[in-house]
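User: Some background: our group keeps a shared notebook of sequences we're curious about, and every so often someone picks one and asks for a predicted structure to add to the entry. Today it's my turn. The entry only has the sequence so far, pasted here. Could you supply the structure so I can complete it?
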Amino acid sequence: MKIHKRTDFLDPKKALELYELDIFTLGELANSIRAEYYDKQVFFNSNRHINPTNECASICKFCGFSAHRKNPNAYTMTKEEILKIAEDSVSSGALEFHIVGAHNPKLNLSWYLDLFSTLKSRFPNIHIKALTAAEVHYLSTLDGKSYEEVLEAMAESGVDSMPGGGAEIFDEDLRTIICKGKVDSKNWLKIHEIWHSLGKQSNATMLFGHIETRKHRIDHLLRLYHQQEKSGGFNAFIPLLYQKENNFLKVTNFPSGQEILKTIAIARILLPNIPHIKAYWATLGLNLALVAQEFGADDIDGTIQRESIQSASGSKSAHGVSKEKLIAQIKDAGFTPVERDSLYQVIQSF
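Assistant: Of course. Here's the predicted structure to add to the notebook entry:
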């Protein structure tokens, strides 16, 4: 894939000026990049989200998933329950287990390693994408092990790639407000750099649409650009739209559709070294995620089957979406649906 080196936008002030372009000009620029890379292809995968627990030692103000006074329904799955979910998911066509949860002091590193090795033994052809950098940091602290030790053990137990959660917004003053006590931005990036050094790939994310400003978003994107120049292991960037229900941020000024599409387009422009931009339908909704394919995005995520984290804060993603519906919707939007594996190898083009 040809890489565009747009060094003129590495200046934060110039990058911020992209927001001043009208939506059509910005969309055309971003779409020209995605079209050069992927023409009319829109990627998706057949995946299952598994969230083992919502009992969490952290209290992030934007979260409606963790068990606290906004969500009194605490749960922790047994390994037998997870294996049953995994078995049913494979029977339904899943090719990836996306495993993330909460910072539960009852579930240490050994618990997760045993889970991963059991899943890989039982389902050797399934890709395991597991544990955010925030979870890695928590387990490192809980078990008194270095990041390197935790990540190497994860890889040895069968984890194939890492999701991008926990990045939220990198500005530390904002993190103090929205997710105090969670992994800081420097260590989030460090954990992914170590994972990349093991020859593994990961996603990167940004939570936007809450109390951050455009300037904070640009800072976040440029930090990801520079990290990718160093370690090179991010295969996709996912701008996660803040979900407004059942949490404590009390945001009233939500971004417009144009603001959301501008942010996705700017991500495509500022991250020429990250191959894919994912319009995650679980936070955007399927319709807006499809529109985003004309504003720089080339991926829509996957079937999901079951989703607990975003849906706890108001997303309509709880029961996933069928592969047939994804294919039909992508075609109706004028694109070519392409089923991929977790590392973007093409399985089938429709």
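Suggested note for the entry: DSSP finds 13 helices and eleven strands in the chain. Confidence is low (pLDDT under 50) at residues 307-317.
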